[in-house]
């Protein structure tokens, strides 16, 4: 169910029959010279569209949070960075609002790596007030599966670029982009480090991306994501014996 287009009465009816909400979370930031600035919003949006077709009768699809935290890519034009503290407080308050509306299961569908540590803070605070949550970081959780289709993933790398191309071929290009490997593990931090680690604001082999690989990734990952969501409901069943 799409919350954005619901009216009050429809929402009240939805509250009575479901208690799971999915909140997409993205970022507006530089994605190489070749991918849309909204890549981390566009990809979760496409997953949500596919999940809605399969499980829309059991999940409320909430409007997305398009701005997140990106310390690493902040030196680049087009990155609109929100501090980790403000971002985690904001996402927590949104989730708290859903909890007050009867949604005890919250799925955070995250499209951006820089958000991860903030979302850990959010879900720990949510657990403490009684919310069950599942955070989906698709690029980490299914990385080994992703590498079978796109062996050289990364930030605006082969995987993300393929996923963007599969949405709309006008949102990315591959010709002449090339490939870039990060020279240091991300645990090294120094001023404007992102600009050194990602000189062109991307990593991985973007040039190898294709629409077909993107389509394959959507199909594979949508199935894996649904399995994880089923596990969230199984957790709920175990905790109280029934499910709405
Ligand atoms: Zn991205």
Automatic annotation (TrEMBL):
InterPro entries: Creatininase-like_sf (IPR024087), Creatininase/forma_Hydrolase (IPR003785). It comes from the Bacteria. The keyword NAD does not apply. The keyword Zinc applies. Its cofactor is Zn(2+). Keywords: Hydrolase, Metal-binding, Zinc. PANTHER family: 2-AMINO-5-FORMYLAMINO-6-RIBOSYLAMINOPYRIMIDIN-4(3H)-ONE 5'-MONOPHOSPHATE DEFORMYLASE, 3-DEHYDRO-SCYLLO-INOSOSE HYDROLASE. Belongs to the creatininase superfamily. This is Creatininase family protein.
